[in-house]
Amino acid sequence: MGGRTETVSPDNDITVDQMYVQYQIPQDAKRHFPVVMIHGCCLSGKSWEETPDGRMGWNTYFVQRNRPTYVVDQVSRARSGFDATVFNQVKAGTLPPSSLPSITQVSHQSSWNIFRFGLTFGQPFTNLQFPIAQVEGLYQQEIPDLNSLLPADNPTYTNLSTLAKSLDGAVLMGHSESGFFPQFSALVDTTKIKGLITLEHNCNVFTDVQIKTLAKIPQLIVFGDFIELFPQWVTANQSCTNYVARIKAAGGDITFIHLPDIGIHGNSHMMMLDKNNLQVADVVLDWIDKHVGKRGGGKQ
Amino acid sequence: MGGRTETVSPDNDITVDQMYVQYQIPQDAKRHFPVVMIHGCCLSGKSWEETPDGRMGWNTYFVQRNRPTYVVDQVSRARSGFDATVFNQVKAGTLPPSSLPSITQVSHQSSWNIFRFGLTFGQPFTNLQFPIAQVEGLYQQEIPDLNSLLPADNPTYTNLSTLAKSLDGAVLMGHSESGFFPQFSALVDTTKIKGLITLEHNCNVFTDVQIKTLAKIPQLIVFGDFIELFPQWVTANQSCTNYVARIKAAGGDITFIHLPDIGIHGNSHMMMLDKNNLQVADVVLDWIDKHVGKRGGGKQ
């Protein structure tokens, strides 16, 4: 969906900024709103599918729980493609090499730190929920991130808000890099965005006007375990604490869950792939039922 | 699946050459072999999903016909990712711009010619089966093709033969750029490859030894309509006529179908998206039933 036409040479137009969407609609959706799932840095929609150790992913589980699911690949990633024009211009010598975007490839070693598998590469936390014996399956999911090609006004934001409208209402759920894509999409247009779910993100600072807009939509923020052991995650957690306070002050309905505080321990940053991933999914689904409800009203 | 570890800097390893595979297994597969679907140039596994005008794609239809389906993204494309190391080296100035691969982006205009929508851009054939009013949906599927990054021994070949083994038998189906990937995979290892299906490809020339190996596996080659109006497609068609003759001379079971010859008219190069796509799928399924059969034997 989405996208725009770009002319790369006379009589040669290409389509860029489009967004791939994969969907499943259960036979009996019981008036549940669709859930749109957006992956993080250096990953694709694959994050929501089967886990590295072959268990059910959130995509399938949400469908089993009667939720229509829409799994996207971010613009400039995976099946959404990217605009390769600048690469070909640098190769042809019409642009300098400095024009190339920085492409992020997360290494195995960085994954351990960013995804909180352990303090030292190769030494997982003893109570880690990530299926670390099959970590190679995660490495296979890690692909180049070309988001630096995109303008500050990331086309994914508009595509997501357009998707919510085309679905006549949807809950948007982002993870990590895309953790606040739901919020940025709502700032493009709140119409038909019924809930914002943020899984582990460094919460952005918004203006009072933006906070007022965002406070109109129910929001959930979830963090896993081991946060206190990683400075960057302590910072992220604090930024979200601040964000939550501002949304509450603006009268918003926002829930901040640190999983260990509700008795769920050992979760990595990749909670949708962890061994207890369905338990975490239930936390999200329960929040949707209580704070978003169904088409035509009716919260639990 | 697949892939290898590449060290990009001290203490920074990444996984490259892996292949994303998306699968659906029907509840009652009735001993049918899985069908592995491989997309063409500048496209992704999306080719086999819903059509641009919102009809059922081959992925879903084959499942409805009780076939387990495995839709892959080629190595270096879409959810399989690619090795971005050379791009970052050129940006850093450690490699010259000429080191960059040529990235293929198919334009709207080229699509009309290559995919045989019409002789002139914007003027479709009157009996064209492609849903041309929704052609923008195809343009959205067209993404950069980085295959020039890959070695001649494309890692997708080995990944496909490994996949066939892991499935204990599979039919491989390629389209266009990947039309002979099934054959190249069989040349890596014929084990468990039960059938080779080629949808519109410029058939490669093999050695007699290779032909002898390939002749052991049932093969189907399919071409659509309007071939005679495009010199490159006349050449492709002729190359396959030659290939078929050699396989037959080696005692192989090979079927060459020009759809208009069996009364199916108007098909573009994107026959899996055409308005009569399920009729074409039936031709393929019928061939599988008659020439490949089921697990434990039993051809129709």
From TrEMBL, chains A, B:
Entry superkingdom: Bacteria
InterPro entries: AB_hydrolase_fold (IPR029058), Carboxylesterase_BioH (IPR050228)
PANTHER family hit by this protein: HYDROLASE ALPHA/BETA FOLD FAMILY, PIMELOYL-[ACYL-CARRIER PROTEIN] METHYL ESTER ESTERASE
Protein name: Esterase
